[in-house]
Amino acid sequence: MWNIPQLQRFIKRLPTPNKLQIGNVNFNFCTIGGTFDRLHIGHKTLINVALIFSKRVLVCVTSDQYAKSLRKIAAELIEPYDLRKKRVEEFISSLGKSNATYMYKLEDPYSPATTSEFAVDIDSIVISNEPAVTERTFKLNELRLEYGLSPLKILRIPLLRDPYGEIISSTRYRLNDFFPPPRPPELRLTNEVIKKIREPKGAAITSPKYLPDYQLFKKSGVIAIGDAAFVNLLRFGYPVSVALVDFKIQRKGVSYATFYCINEETKLIDVPPMIPVINPPGRISTESWYATLIAFVQENPTIVTVYGEEDLLGFPATMLAPEGSLVVYGDPFKKKLIYFIVDSDHKENALDLLLKMQSVDVGNKQ
């Protein structure tokens, strides 16, 4: 089936499983900033984290003059401000979040959160874990104190890496040095496979305490599919490598925040990358394969957040996961957790069902 074997060869192991925290961490008005040149999955993840943790988001896009002053590699190839801004707006609109965002032309790294009309209301910022960015954000908080403003809570996410192990960056896109996203057809669920899909793929349990010892999966990894499974694992303290969620349990919206750790002294909250993907109900979208692939090749636990439904994303997860990985998902009919350890039989069964789905070639949105 198209290039699944080629994708599988990039995934030798999943992110090292780790215990994530779950708690009441949310904000009223968050800010993010960047050049957003060649809008890519790293940018989208940064924006998505802000949208998940905050009710409103101020999206600051560098002006052409400011972008030029940063002396980036191949700066002459940076897209013009209007195009970069438009692509950010279109992406946010595709998530249905336009009403939660405000756009701002960025002329320097500090004014939006110190002297702009929004400064008083901003309470948080999302940044990457680049040391220079962290130091600049600490300086921003010092400036806010000088202006009589409260320091911002800092949500910090790791930079995403591609299947080559290289950091995903606009510079690499400008230089035409990037991992090309796979372009499988979109697949639609058919009546022929619905019954098969509903059959449990493994053992049914009532609690994560009945799962195998997580130490067995330190090298191969642990995958949680669906919010019911993920939240159960979080609350039990069972380590996770990758979660695929849509913030719904039995079609009802749920709200929770997950993070690595909080440092109250520095205001730093380290959070997992939360890769956004659009996946309509009853389908496996083209871009869901790429989002799953990118999540699987990170070093630290990573979350794929689905706009639509994650119900069928167990297929890309099973097909791309290394053999020996643990998969846990919730069965809404039995109201239990189902788990299985990925092996060649699971991959063959998944492929057989994929081949029976209807192909809908809609191109690649990622």
- Order of neighbouring strands in the sheet with most strands: 4-3-2-5-6-15-14
Strand content: 25-35%
Please mark out the parts with pLDDT under 50 across 5 or more consecutive residues, or reply none. Answer: none
Mean pLDDT: 93
Rounded to the nearest angstrom, the distance between the terminal CA atoms is: 20 Å
- Residues in helix, %: 25-40%
Rg is 21 Å
Helix-strand makeup class: alpha/beta
Instruction: Profile the largest sheet.
Output: 7 strands, mixed
Q: Could you give the topology of this structure?
A:
Blueprint: H1 4-8, E1 21-23, E2 27-34, H2 41-53, E3 54-62, H3 64-69, H4 81-94, E4 101-106, H5 111-114, E5 124-128, H6 131-146, E6 153-157, H7 170-174, E7 186-188, H8 191-198, E8 203-205, E9 222-225, H9 227-236, E10 242-245, E11 248-249, E12 252-253, E13 257-259, E14 261-263, E15 268-270, E16 274-279, E17 283-284, H10 286-296, E18 302-308, H11 314-320, E19 326-331, E20 336-341, H12 344-355, E21 358-360
Parallel strand pairs: 2-3, 2-5, 3-4, 5-6, 6-15, 9-10, 9-19, 10-18, 16-18
Antiparallel strand pairs: 1-13, 7-17, 7-21, 8-20, 11-12, 14-15, 19-20
Task: Describe the protein in words.
This protein has 366 residues and is of the alpha/beta class. It folds into two domains: 7-15 and 184-260 and 272-359, no CATH class; 25-174, Rossmann fold (3-Layer(aba) Sandwich), CATH 3.40.50.620. The protein is 30% helix and 25% strand. It has helices at 4-8, 41-53, 64-69, 81-94, 111-114, 131-146, 170-174, 191-198, 227-236, 286-296, 314-320, 344-355, and strands at 21-23, 27-34, 54-62, 101-106, 124-128, 153-157, 186-188, 203-205, 222-225, 242-245, 248-249, 252-253, 257-259, 261-263, 268-270, 274-279, 283-284, 302-308, 326-331, 336-341, 358-360. The strands form five sheets. The chain has a seven-stranded mixed β-sheet with strand order 4-3-2-5-6-15-14, with helices on both faces. It has a seven-stranded mixed β-sheet with strand order 8-20-19-9-10-18-16, with helices on both faces. It has a three-stranded antiparallel β-sheet with strand order 17-7-21. The longest helix has 16 residues, at 131-146. The chain is globular, with a radius of gyration of 21 Å.
